[in-house]
Amino acid sequence: MGAQENPNLPSMEVRVCTTRLSLAYSDLTDLPPDVIAKHGNSILELDLSHNKISDLRFLMELPNIRSLVLDHNSVTSQVKMPLCRDLHTLWVNHNRIQNLGFFLQTIAKNCPSLRILSMMNNEAAPSYFNGGTYQQYVDYRYFVISSLPNLEVLDYSPVTDAETREAKRIYPSRMFDPEPEANLRRKLIKKKKKGKKQKSTAEDEEELQMPATGI
Fold first, then answer.
1. Which Gene3D superfamilies does this UniProt record tie to the protein (predicted)?
2. Which one of 30, 142, 173, 185 is most buried, counting C-beta atoms within 10 A?
3. Using CA atoms, how far apart are residues 146 and 163, in angstroms rounded to an integer?
């Protein structure tokens, strides 16, 4: 499909090629509702580079998203995002990510299928590009690898078996539950059932204590 112009977004060029959509350089802070309505279910690859996006909750409307490019945006360590079961590629180069642990906790929880991650030129990703030392860069890789056990490529460099072994040795306690939302859901359901049971028992006791009608 060739280039199309969205009538509701006159200054934006929307390029859709089968299942890939590009809205790069569009001065966006969110994904436009009309784009979601028209392409939401069919988008597999989305390029939103060079925008002003900081909140990723719009991904809830893209149930089949596989690849997301967010280079040069305003994503922070505290970014909000939903569960994206099939997302395998995420680029967040040149953003505002400062707390690596906090960011990885969010990614690990919501992107269980992630295979490729690139987050160069963020404060949380030390390298030659932002004044980090070689040792800082190496430790950063180990930390990320230990947090995302399915990762195959980090910052354009393949994750090696040696790195995986070393990451597990250095950070043995960083175990990741691949289905955290399922466990959480089970706990909530159990808690809800328990609450209903307690409420029902309390109502029964109250009913027994209430005087009969007409007395």
1. Ribonuclease Inhibitor
2. 142
3. 9
